[in-house]
């Protein structure tokens, strides 16, 4: 039966009201998050106004307090800006707000489905302004925040706060949403900060400007670059240490010297490893693996004509992602597809969706498929799968409470054991839950009961670190590590190799590390091979030097927590490594007031496909330039690829 005109109007009116309701809720959320910043800023401005009206200099203690308050206000604004999507007019997803989702427990019902459709329509540009997102209002708020941010930092600088100088320099290179790169201002501020404090990071950034001649701010001077990088490296800046290691390795501005390169790369590698070990059991979560822009185009010669996209390489995540995007897929579409099936109690889709939210990527560990990591949603779907087999929890007897499965239900068991493993990881590491080794052991034992290798490795970590009773049990740990290693589990192979390595049984330990690398171990195995080859190089085996450099270089580049890359660690916080590298709400360590989340290219790499430098923006160009000077191949590839896309000398002066 067709709708009458009156009914059509009623339906349109209902959809309009739903969209307005959703828009109002989002606006309220945004304005609420801004409120504390506005109040804090007003307090600071009132104090400044009082001092100005009096026309008298502030007392030393009050001056220091005023400077610190202004800096704290600025850091709060930076956090608020970083929480916004890059384009405030284009929401990153079309999921329902939490308060609406809670009203509709059945996500596949007609009302919830209608709300989800309306929410997604709001992001479309062709809709009337009253139905589309609030672009102009959002942009106005961002401009106001940026104005307050710069005013707060300038006020703090005027009052003599050197941390404010460093902060303004930093966001001039790694700007938050609403700001643009200002390389000239960054150079001036880093120079001023280095003169006042001798800070290693500021010295290293000066080295970058002299090494690259970026933007023509200063002429290229490799001697000065090496000088500043050396000061920065000696001051503990890992980026400068990597740059000096690369310069000695490649002979840039200095004589080639493998042992000197090894010295600097080893220092950077040690810092990365220290940050890794300062995290939860099993180590910090590695940053997503960066992507080469050339891979997104199928390689330098295109799809099917390049080594990067032929043979086995065609199965790599960047190539798969590029093919998917070329076919019109978006990551929102992928999430919506999996969510649709997962909410209809299909365990294979629920497990895949949970993994995506857990890893923060469509392709586990790869930045090319980056989505918002969401431990709450991951746990929800993992638990829904596990509950199909394990109906009740019992810490004393973990294996009780298992459902008797029929022959038709046996296929669910494999999914449930994997879900048990991930729930064990999350409880062990405090990801989405309060850390609880006993609950973690319960889930791991359920997975290990059916030979799940990740669960066996998790039990090994619990016994090795004595997380239950404070007493390490290396015999039990070795038993579980060996069981998982026998199933080609790379992390377990590393863990078993570490036990042997610490006993100095190098001949037995090294094969485990080498095998782990062949099974795609991303981090620790390289460190122990680097350490072993470093010992050889320093005891009269020069041939081991190049291997040691390569392995230390890999560790330093993968463990980018220490590189302060897009993350803001104030000079005064550098001694508190755990605090300065833990994001808000993380259980990896204490939260630092100066934290900024590391920037990862993720899906935005697609912006560089065939559009030249203008398509990727100066923020990425300067970032890749900095990384290139310290020898990172992916950054060098991306920089060269983008400049080649331009095919005009107009793009080149920025690097002269």
From TrEMBL:
GO terms for biological process: ERAD pathway. One of its GO terms (cellular component) is endoplasmic reticulum membrane. SMART domains: SEL1 (SM00671). Residues 33-44, 579-594 have a biased composition (Polar residues). Residues 29-59, 566-595 are annotated as: Disordered. Pfam families: Sel1 (PF08238). Residues 1-26 form the signal peptide. Keywords: Signal. PANTHER family: SEL-1-LIKE PROTEIN, SEL1L ADAPTOR SUBUNIT OF ERAD E3 UBIQUITIN LIGASE. Belongs to the sel-1 family. This is HCP-like protein.
């Amino acid at each position: 039966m067709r709708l009458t005109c009156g009914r059509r109007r009623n339906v349109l009116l209902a959809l309009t009201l739903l969209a307005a309701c959703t828009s109002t809720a989002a606006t309220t959320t945004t304005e609420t998050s801004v409120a504390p910043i506005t109040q804090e800023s007003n307090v600071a401005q009132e104090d400044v106004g009082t001092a100005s009206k009096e026309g008298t200099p502030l007392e030393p203690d009050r001056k220091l307090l005023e400077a610190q308050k202004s800096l704290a206000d600025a850091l709060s604004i930076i956090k608020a800006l970083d929480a916004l999507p890059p384009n405030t007019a284009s929401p990153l997803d079309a999921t329902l707000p939490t308060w609406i989702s809670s009203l509709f427990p059945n996500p596949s019902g007609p009302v919830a489905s209608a709300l989800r459709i309306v929410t997604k329509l709001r992001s479309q540009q062709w809709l009337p302004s009253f139905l589309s997102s609030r672009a102009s209002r959002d942009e106005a708020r961002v401009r106001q925040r940026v104005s307050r941010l710069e005013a707060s930092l300038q006020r703090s600088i005027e009052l003599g706060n050197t941390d404010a100088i460093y902060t303004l320099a930093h966001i001039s290179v790694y700007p938050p949403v609403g700001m643009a790169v200002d390389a000239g201002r960054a150079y001036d501020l880093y120079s001023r900060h280095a003169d006042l404090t001798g800070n290693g990071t500021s010295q290293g950034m000066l080295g970058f400007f002299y090494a690259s001649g970026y933007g023509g701010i200063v002429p290229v001077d490799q001697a000065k670059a090496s000088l500043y990088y050396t000061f920065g490296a000696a001051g503990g800046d890992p980026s400068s240490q990597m740059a000096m290691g690369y310069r000695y390795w490649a002979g840039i501005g200095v004589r080639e010297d493998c042992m000197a390169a090894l010295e600097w790369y080893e220092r950077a590698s040690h810092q990365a490893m220290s940050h890794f070990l300062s995290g939860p059991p099993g180590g910090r979560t590695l940053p997503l693996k960066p992507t080469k822009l050339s891979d997104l185009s199928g390689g330098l010669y295109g799809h099917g004509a390049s080594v990067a996209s032929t043979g086995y390489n065609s199965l790599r995540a960047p190539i798969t992602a590029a093919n998917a995007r070329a076919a019109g897929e978006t990551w929102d579409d992928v999430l919506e597809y999996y969510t649709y099936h997962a909410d209809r109690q299909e365990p294979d889709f629920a497990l895949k969706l949970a993994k995506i939210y857990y890893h923060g990527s469509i392709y586990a560990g790869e930045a090319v498929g980056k989505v918002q990591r969401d431990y709450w949603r991951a746990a929800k779907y993992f638990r829904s799968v596990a509950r199909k087999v394990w109906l009740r929890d019992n810490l004393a007897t973990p294996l009780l409470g298992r459902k008797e499965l029929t022959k038709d239900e046996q296929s669910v068991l494999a999914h449930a054991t994997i879900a048990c493993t991930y729930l064990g990881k999350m409880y062990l590491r405090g990801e989405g839950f309060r850390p609880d080794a006993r609950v973690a052991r319960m889930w791991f034992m359920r997975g290990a009961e059916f030979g799940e290798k990740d669960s066996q490795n998790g039990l090994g970590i619990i016994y090795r670190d004595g997380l239950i009773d404070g007493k390490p049990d290396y015999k039990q740990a070795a038993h579980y590590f060996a069981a998982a290693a026998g199933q080609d589990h790379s992390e377990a192979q590393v863990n078993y190799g570490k036990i042997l390595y610490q006993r100095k049984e190098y001949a037995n330990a090294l094969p485990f590390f080498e095998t782990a690398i062949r099974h795609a171990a991303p981090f620790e195995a390289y460190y122990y091979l680097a350490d072993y080859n470093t010992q050889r190089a320093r005891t009269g085996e020069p041939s081991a030097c190049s291997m040691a450099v390569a392995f230390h270089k890999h560790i330093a580049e993968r463990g980018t927590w220490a590189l302060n890359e897009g993350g803001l660690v104030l000079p005064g916080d550098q001694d508190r490594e755990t605090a300065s590298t833990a994001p808000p709400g993380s259980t990896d360590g204490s939260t630092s007031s100066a934290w900024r989340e590391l920037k990862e290219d993720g899906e935005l790499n697609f912006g560089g496909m065939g559009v030249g430098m203008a398509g990727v923006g100066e923020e990425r160009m300067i970032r890749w330039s900095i990384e290139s000077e310290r020898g990172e191949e992916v950054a060098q590839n991306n920089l060269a690829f983008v400049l080649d896309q331009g095919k005009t000398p107009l793009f080149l002066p920025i690097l002269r």
